[in-house]
Design brief:
single chain, alpha/beta, Quinone Oxidoreductase, Chain A, domain 1, Rossmann fold, 2 domains, 7-stranded mixed beta sheet, 10 helices, 18 strands, 26% helix, globular, binds zinc ion
């Protein structure tokens, strides 16, 4: 079938909305009519060239690529052998597919599923064919095997999660990346407990949810660090008790709040994480405390500032996380249940909605720090 999608032809270009031909769903695949797609910072990394260059690592280029890895929609067709989904099911997508059979899935770590290794390469999960073609027949890839910036999505059944039909589909889309990642960074990875002091560095779509996670876990002090005054103001809505414009400014604040002990955990969720952010995060963290790196760093970056003497002698931990260190099929329904119970703010995360044709404006607003989350909404 023909659909319309925002395609990126190379780094440092604008998104182009063009017609794309999708294959009919093959074995183990579903066709989804997209309802909403979050404008996550990770797709911006394709534009800046920080991501999607597996050619440098010996792989194939992802360009041209349909962007988007946060989304929701309704299944309109199922391929051969699909038994867990039927036409009419409401779904969240998952940028980490879950096969359910590999060592990681079998041990409750779907976020590390072996299928995730191919998520930034070309080809459908099912049989490796492209499945998406441009107006001249050229092959087009999809971000994270999804491509949510399109009116329809051809997906593997491993990349979708069924959700309650009563749920509005915009919050469902947000939970599929930013919410699960941020919330889990605090609750699962930093293991925040009641009475903790937590610092969240970068308070956009991921950080706002790390604040919500820290609050839900009972943290006493939740310190939001962001250069943007708008994001610092919004941070209070999501659970921040204090704010600072920089980690340097936070140092004195956290020292005062903890009588010099410093933070139990620091979550680094900036839009672009760079190696020079780790040492200041380290010094904001108490003895035996935890630093969690959540945001995406430029893919080829190797240099990190870390005081190894202090790191070892103060018994600190530095942890990475993907999908909030939770299994997508567990996290997504659980977080949506908290939303239904009024325990998680999802509607409040949406600053602005856009049509597919307004995608470049949406990303410009993100760059200008105007949005906690911009969302593409389809008819
Ligand atoms: Zn994302
Ligand atoms: Zn797996």
């Amino acid at each position: 079938m023909k659909t319309r999608a925002a395609v990126l032809h190379g780094a440092h270009q604008e998104w182009q909305v063009t017609e794309v031909e999708l294959d009919a769903p093959g074995k183990g695949e579903v066709l989804v009519k997209t309802h909403a797609a979050g404008l996550c910072h990770s797709d911006e990394h394709l534009v800046t060239g920080d991501l999607g260059t597996p050619a440098e690592l010996g792989g194939s280029s992802l360009f041209p690529v349909i962007g988007g890895h946060e989304g929701s929609g309704v299944i309109i067709e199922v391929g051969e052998g699909v038994t867990d989904f039927e036409v009419g099911d409401h779904v969240a997508v998952s940028f980490v597919p879950a096969c359910g059979k590999c060592r990681w899935c079998a041990s409750g770590q779907q976020n590390l599923c072996d299928l995730g290794a191919g998520t930034l390469g070309p080809g459908m999960i099912s049989d490796g064919r492209c499945g998406h073609h441009g107006p001249d027949g050229e092959e087009i890839n999809t971000m994270a095997k999804l491509g949510t910036f399109a009116e329809h999505m051809l997906l593997s059944e491993d990349s979708v999660i069924k959700v309650d039909k009563d749920l509005p589909l915009i919050p469902v889309a947000l939970v599929s990346c930013g919410v699960a990642t941020g919330y889990g960074s605090a609750v699962n990875r930093a293991e925040v407990t009641a009475g903790d002091t937590v610092v969240v560095v970068g308070c956009g779509g991921i950080g706002a949810n790390a604040l919500q996670g820290a609050k839900a876990a009972g943290a006493k002090n939740v310190v939001a660090v962001d250069l943007s005054e708008f994001k610092r103001e919004k941070a209070a809505e999501f659970g921040a008790t204090h704010t600072a414009a920089s980690m340097e400014e936070a140092m004195e604040l956290v020292g005062g709040l903890t009588e010099g002990v410093m933070a139990d955990s620091v979550i680094v969720s900036a839009g672009v994480v760079t190696g020079d952010m780790i040492a200041p995060a380290q010094f904001l963290t108490r003895k035996g405390g935890t630093i969690v790196v959540t945001g995406l760093a430029p893919m080829m970056q190797m240099d990190v500032q870390l005081n190894l003497f202090e790191f070892a002698m103060m018994n600190k931990q530095l942890k990475g996380t993907i999908f909030g260190s939770d299994s997508p099929r567990r996290a997504v329904p659980r977080l949506l249940g908290m939303y239904q119970a009024g325990q998680l703010k999802l509607d409040e995360l949406v600053t602005e909605t856009y049509t597919l044709d307004e995608i470049n404006q949406g990303y410009q607003d993100m760059r200008d720090n105007k949005n906690i989350r911009g969302v593409l909404v389809f008819d």
